[in-house]
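Below is how a single chain appears once it has passed through the pipeline. First comes the sequence as given, then the structure the pipeline wrote out for it. We keep one example in the README because the format questions we get most often are answered faster by looking than by reading.
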Amino acid sequence: MVQEIITYPRPLSLEYGTDVRIYDEKLFSLLDDLKETIKANNLQALSAYQIGSYYNVIVFRNEEGKLVEMVNPLQIAHSGESIEEEKTLYYGDISAKVKRFTDISVIYEDREGESHSLKLSGNTARVIQRKLDYLFGSSFLDRLADDEKAKFEAKLSMGSDIGKENYCPTTFQRDKIIKAINLLLIAMVILFLVSFVVDTSLWKYQLYSSFIALSLQVVYFFYAQYEGNKYSSCVSCSIGNIIGTTLVSFVRLSVVMIPSYFFM
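Resulting structure:
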């Protein structure tokens, strides 16, 4: 019978998979349900946990397209590592970069209790590792690096796979422009104060500096919009935020230039 597959936000069990000790009709029915559910949903593999069973069971489709039943599977060896974009049925179409072994060796039993072993590589090895995660009450979310986990959680909050750059970073290239403007404003304040203790007029230098600061503000305004188009989920990339930052910078420049005009 085709079973309902557990998906987010319904929580997965935090318990470990229970090893099969009795090979009876209950086990056979579970294996048949997994196979029918795989066929109905055109899947490559499915663990018993994903349809609400606590048994340590996986069914997967091998390279020849045959469905292989794995009872009490256990990974006993591995080699190589790769980081690849990966999706899991539990989180739908949302992807993340996950580090996994490229080659694994697995031992398991069939429905009759006979022992077998398999050496798997490439995508099949990756899929089996993902299914083994479920048997430990886990998912690929627990394997993500901190920065990748932050990206994935941003995608999850949006409810869609919004792409590699459509998360909200903590720093932007445009921040360097604002930093340059602020340093220039500090220099202008110092120049204004120095003008009171020297005989030479420093107004022209102050004026040139204001032109540079104003030009940088224009550059910031347009570049920030260009950069913001790459991060559609980021509130700080909105046009309102960019305009506000530009206006604040302009007000600071005005605060420096108005007294400079009258006293320098």
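The radius of gyration is 30 Å.

See the next section for the split statistics.
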